[in-house]
Design brief:
The protein is an alpha+beta fold. It has helices spanning 12-28, 34-41, 47-59, 76-86, 94-103, 111-126, 179-193, 198-211, 214-230, 257-269, 271-281, 329-353, and strands at 63-64, 73-74, 129-133, 142-150, 154-161, 166-172, 240-243, 286-290, 302-311, 314-324. The longest helix has 25 residues, at 329-353. Negative regulator of class I heat shock genes (grpE-dnaK-dnaJ and groELS operons). Prevents heat-shock induction of these operons.
Length: 354
């Protein structure tokens, strides 16, 4: 997994006490005192020894003492060490995997429908906010294209992609093309480039333009202009789907009104969230950011657990959850990992079927 490595050299007793402290804190959210550690750790050491070890862990920045309590809580650095080296992740329990398989439809209408189901399911499974990035439509192979002439050198473009998504776009051309020219261009693209992605179609057309004679060149030039206009990036639209944001209002760690306002504003604007998820998508496996590690102030009090998904060896995006730093990492990480795998499987099946 793509977790950060910690190089702290802790002896076996310190590691066991830290593991015990964090496990207890994740369970109830309360500072953990030396007596509790003495009872729960199973170590045959005196309370004084435990206090000394806790003091050393505090000096190392792994635990902290809230001023209202004699107990200690883990810091983000301590949680990072815990996740990286002190917990043993197990495969998702059979009943949870069965639920994921049951609630992810095997043949969704479109990829966006599937992704919406994934974000909702992640939220329901973890009781946090579920997050899924939406791939560019150009990342999916083309299944069919049609051009319909409109007044003033405009063209209605009807695009059908391999994930069953249908898009209608109106494009403006430099000069009008009649119905016959548009039909020829559409027939040429459908005959030669169905099954290719947009960037590949452009590259093939450009290469053929350089090599062909005048008559075919004119057809290719029209096809090239139409393709370039049809697949220009679209303004607006959701690049990230978020479900279950209101779940986060139920956690005391995030209950501060200013913190919640910043967090919900980040969910609404999505720019920073999209940047973070794109970073996650570029790395294989699971990524985890605890507190300030994300680099975005609105997420300072949160942990973000993500995993990349894709089809046919091509990464398309990332799925994940956002919740408080006090989360059951040993459960959440396998949920996110399994969901990303099942989403990839579903997309691969759809690509094969098309």
């Amino acid at each position: 997994m793509s977790f950060l490595n910690s190089h702290l050299d802790l002896d076996a007793r310190a590691r066991r006490l830290l593991r015990t402290l964090i496990a207890q804190y994740l369970l109830d959210g309360e500072p953990v005192g030396s007596r509790t550690l003495s009872r729960s750790s199973g170590l045959a050491v005196s309370p004084a020894t435990i206090r000394n070890i806790m003091s050393d862990l505090e000096d190392a920045g792994l635990v902290a003492s809230p001023h209202t309590s004699a107990g200690r809580v883990p810091t983000p650095r301590g949680l990072r060490l815990f996740v990286d080296s002190l917990i043993e992740l197990q495969p998702l329990p059979h009943e949870d995997m069965a639920r994921l398989r049951r609630e992810l439809p095997p043949q969704p209408t479109t990829t966006r429908d599937l992704l919406g189901n994934v974000s909702t399911l992640l939220s329901a499974m973890t009781h946090f906010a579920g997050v899924v990035t939406v791939p560019r439509q150009a990342d999916f192979p083309l299944r069919h294209i049609d051009f319909v002439p409109l007044p003033d050198a405009r063209v209605l473009v009807i695009l059908v992609f391999s994930d069953n998504q249908v898009q209608n776009r109106i494009v403006q051309l430099a000069k009008p093309l009649d119905g016959s020219e548009l039909e020829q261009a559409a027939n040429y693209i459908n005959a030669h480039f169905v099954g290719l992605r947009v960037d590949d179609i452009r590259a093939h057309l450009l290469g053929e333009l350089r090599e062909t004679g005048s008559e075919l060149n004119r057809l290719l030039a029209s096809a090239m202009e139409l393709t370039t206009a049809s697949f220009a990036p679209q303004v607006g639209g959701d690049d990230v789907l978020v479900s279950g944001q209101t779940n986060l209002m139920g956690y005391a760690e995030l209950a501060d009104l200013d913190r919640l306002r910043d967090l919900f504003e980040a969910f609404q604007k999505k720019n920073e969230l999209l940047q973070l998820m794109e970073v996650c998508a570029r790395a294989p496996g699971v990524r985890l950011f605890i507190g300030e590690e994300s680099g975005f102030t609105a997420l300072d009090g949160c942990s973000v657990v993500t995993a990349s998904y894709g089809t046919q060896g091509r990464v398309l995006g990332a799925v994940g959850v956002i919740g408080p730093t006090r989360m059951a990492y040993e459960r959440v990480i396998p949920v996110v990992q399994a969901t990303a795998g099942l989403l990839s499987d579903a997309l691969n099946r759809a690509a094969t079927a098309s």
